[in-house]
Amino acid sequence: MSRILVLVRHGQSEWNLLNLFTGWKDPDLTAQGVKEATAAGTRLKALGYKYDIAYTSVLTRAQHTLRLILDEVGQPGLETIKDQALNERDYGELTGLNKDDARAKWGEEQVHIWRRSFDVPPPGGESLKNTAERTLPYFNAEILPRVLKGENVLVAAHGNSLRSIIMDLEKLSGEEIVARELNTGEPIVYELNEDGSIKSKKVLSA
Ligand SMILES: O=C(O)[C@H](O)COP(=O)(O)O
């Protein structure tokens, strides 16, 4: 029984490239993002796992990343569940703004607080804590039980929706998780014990 859980942030998106706050907006991958997702699939393929189910958000960049990975691992038809619980954190009024312009307007420190504090939401948006309040009930009800019964599960999602899940899995504090940066298209492969604790973890870096 292998109990593999793979978490992967989408490849570079058009708005990542433009340095815009993205949140629930729906840009697709750039050519670079397509390469990153394909390379993530190649690295996963080398591990040799077969997956039982995949989960993704309702946003194009995560779904496209997942499709490219599934093609690479030779499971293009894998059952996939799309749910908005896995969407990126809603960036509220920052959505669509350039991150450097936002720093110029509100100051480096304030923008850093909005991006990386645990519980201070950007105006009209979600903090990481708010994000966890929707991702974790979904993860714990739908995804984790499948891994614990011995299935291999692939999740393609977003920087902050995955941070909230990693915080819970790795039992990190709010401070520890906001310091964790997730690279685009970089799979994190967990093997879990029967009780949900981590048996092993590998980050498949480029
Ligand atoms: O929504 C976004 O802009 C990014 O996907 C994540 O942004 P962050 O690194 O500012 O949290």
TrEMBL record:
<comment type="function">
    <text>Catalyzes the interconversion of 2-phosphoglycerate and 3-phosphoglycerate.</text>
</comment>
<dbReference type="InterPro" id="IPR029033">
    <property type="entry name" value="His_PPase_superfam"/>
</dbReference>
<dbReference type="Pfam" id="PF00300">
    <property type="entry name" value="His_Phos_1"/>
</dbReference>
<comment type="similarity">
    <text>Belongs to the phosphoglycerate mutase family. BPG-dependent PGAM subfamily.</text>
</comment>
<feature type="binding site">
    <location>
        <position position="99"/>
    </location>
    <ligand>
        <name>substrate</name>
    </ligand>
</feature>
<dbReference type="InterPro" id="IPR013078">
    <property type="entry name" value="His_Pase_superF_clade-1"/>
</dbReference>
<dbReference type="InterPro" id="IPR005952">
    <property type="entry name" value="Phosphogly_mut1"/>
</dbReference>
<feature type="active site" description="Tele-phosphohistidine intermediate">
    <location>
        <position position="10"/>
    </location>
</feature>
<feature type="active site" description="Proton donor/acceptor">
    <location>
        <position position="88"/>
    </location>
</feature>
<comment type="subunit">
    <text>Homodimer.</text>
</comment>
<keyword id="KW-0312">Gluconeogenesis</keyword>
<feature type="binding site">
    <location>
        <begin position="88"/>
        <end position="91"/>
    </location>
    <ligand>
        <name>substrate</name>
    </ligand>
</feature>
<feature type="binding site">
    <location>
        <begin position="115"/>
        <end position="116"/>
    </location>
    <ligand>
        <name>substrate</name>
    </ligand>
</feature>
<feature type="binding site">
    <location>
        <begin position="9"/>
        <end position="16"/>
    </location>
    <ligand>
        <name>substrate</name>
    </ligand>
</feature>
<feature type="binding site">
    <location>
        <position position="61"/>
    </location>
    <ligand>
        <name>substrate</name>
    </ligand>
</feature>
<protein>
    <recommendedName>
        <fullName>2,3-bisphosphoglycerate-dependent phosphoglycerate mutase</fullName>
        <ecNumber>5.4.2.11</ecNumber>
    </recommendedName>
</protein>
<feature type="site" description="Transition state stabilizer">
    <location>
        <position position="158"/>
    </location>
</feature>
<keyword id="KW-0413">Isomerase</keyword>
<keyword id="KW-0324">Glycolysis</keyword>
<feature type="binding site">
    <location>
        <begin position="22"/>
        <end position="23"/>
    </location>
    <ligand>
        <name>substrate</name>
    </ligand>
</feature>
<dbReference type="GO" id="GO:0006096">
    <property type="term" value="P:glycolytic process"/>
</dbReference>
<dbReference type="InterPro" id="IPR001345">
    <property type="entry name" value="PG/BPGM_mutase_AS"/>
</dbReference>
<comment type="pathway">
    <text>Carbohydrate degradation; glycolysis; pyruvate from D-glyceraldehyde 3-phosphate: step 3/5.</text>
</comment>
<dbReference type="GO" id="GO:0006094">
    <property type="term" value="P:gluconeogenesis"/>
</dbReference>
<dbReference type="GO" id="GO:0004619">
    <property type="term" value="F:phosphoglycerate mutase activity"/>
</dbReference>
<feature type="binding site">
    <location>
        <begin position="159"/>
        <end position="160"/>
    </location>
    <ligand>
        <name>substrate</name>
    </ligand>
</feature>
